Every structure is written in structure tokens, then in C-alpha cells.
Amino acid sequence: MRTDGTAPAARLIDVSKRYGREHTGFLALSGIDLEIRPGELTLLMGPSGSGKTTLISILGCLIHPTTGGVEVGGRRVEGLDERELPAVRRRSIGFVFQGFNLLGSLTALENIEVPLSLAGIRSPAATDRARALLHRMGLGDKEGQLPEDLSGGEKQRVAIARALALEPGIVLADEPTAALDSHTGRGVVGILKDYAHSGRAVVAVTHDQRLVDLADRVLRLEDGKLVA
b vs e for 44-55, b when ≥16 Cβ sit within 10 Å of the residue's Cβ? Predict the structure, then answer.
């Protein structure tokens, strides 16, 4: 817990993750203690195979740790089963994927409406919120476009709008600039930073050293451990 009294958006408590059997498997994470703080854009960096994707997958309640505790929004989640975890993910976590993961048969507007519909928010309220997010991303004229008609930067901004649709307390982005040029990538990370500074938390996995100056906090993983 932070000394200023603000509860962390998420917390890992002595988390380890092993794939495979105890003596023959692979230890992806070892003894991770970490608080993700509201109001901060955190970059998670490290070489390939260092455990970055495993760490954000545990933060995002996509996989369980082998040992240790996980808190999201002040709630312990490591013991929840697959019937309970989707509700936690929907309510508290937004995801921005490296490959955008937009639904190709849906327009930009409809892609953003998907999580709203799953949360029980129907049109016209869902449409109004999705349209407002598109305008916020500078894509007000793209709402009827299919993903195949959008540039890489436009697809990523639609993906971010979808992740923000339910105003989650934490957003997890996996290599959000990997397919983008430097200028577009900085713009995308700037959007995530603005969201973090609205009082939420954003964690972005990246290899891009050019983004370090945009971060409030930089974490580095090596061989499954956080290093200074």
C-alpha cells in the first residue's frame, strides 16, 4: 500500500509463474512484488523471454500465478475460477493488443460498442459513448469504416477506444506501438498517458526506448525478475 493513502490499481505479491513440471519446466517469473499506481503510465521493458507477457497476463487475470497473490481494484483474484474472472476483467481491466484484435466484419464504431454491449449497455447509450470515444481519438470521420480500410495508427486508436469504453481502472497494452512509425507511436502512447493522468493506471509492454521519456515510471524485467 502506498504511503500517500492511495490504493494501488493492481498488486502482485511474491508472484512466481512456472510452466510445466517443477523440475523440468520453465520458471517465467520469480518473486515479483509490484504495485501498479493510479495516475501513472508505467512502461514494462526487458529482452524477449524475460517474462513481460506473462506478467501482464497475470495482472490482466488471463492466467493464474503458480504461487503468490494478485489484487485488482483491491480484490484478491488469484483464487477465482473461470466463471468469476471474466466479470473482473470486464469491470476493471482494458486490453490493447499488439495485433489490434479488431473484428473485421464490424465498423470502427461497432468494434467499440462490443464491450459496452457485453456489459449490458445497449444502444443508443452504447452508440453515443462509442461515438464520443472515436471523436476523442480524432476518428470522428471513421466510424463507418471497416478495419481493413484503416491505417495501422487508426486501428490502434480504435483498439484503445474499445479498451477505454468501460472506463477501467487499469489498462494493459502489449507492444502498442510495434506496428507503428515513431510519430504515430508517440501519439498513441500520449493517449494512454492522458488516460492514466485522469486517475487510472496504464501498463504498456514495449521494446521501444524512444518512449521512455513519456513514461511516469519504467520497470525492467530480466530472467523473470524485476531489476532496478
Answer: bbbeeebbbbbb
Phi-psi region of 111 (alpha: psi -120 to 50; beta: other; left: phi over 0): alpha
What is the per-residue pLDDT across 50-102, written as a single tens digit (0 to 9) for each?
999 999 999 999 999 999 999 999 899 988 888 888 888 888 999 998 888 99
Neighbouring-strand partners of residue 218: 43
Could you give the CA distance from residue 215 to residue 1 in angstroms, rounded to a whole number? 21
C-alpha dihedral sign at 45, 46, 48, 51: negative
Give all domains of the chain, ordered by start, each with its CATH number.
10-227 (3.40.50.300)
Is there a contact between 135 and 117 (Cβ–Cβ < 8 Å)?
Answer: no
pTM of the model: 0.90
Of 207, 204, 174, the closest CA to residue 190 belongs to: 204
Instruction: Tell me the C-alpha distance between 94 and 181, whole Å.
Output: 24
Q: Which grid cell sits at 27?
A: 520458471
Q: Answer for the pair 66, 16: CB distance below 8 angstroms, yes or no.
A: yes
The cell for 79 is 483464487
Rounded Cα–Cα distance for residues 157 and 108 (Å): 10
Compute the distance between CA of residue 174 and CA of residue 59 in angstroms, rounded to an integer: 12
pLDDT tier at 12 (50, 70, 90 boundaries)?
A: very high
Angle at 195 between CA 192 and CA 196, to 5 degrees: 90
CA distance 193 to 51: 23
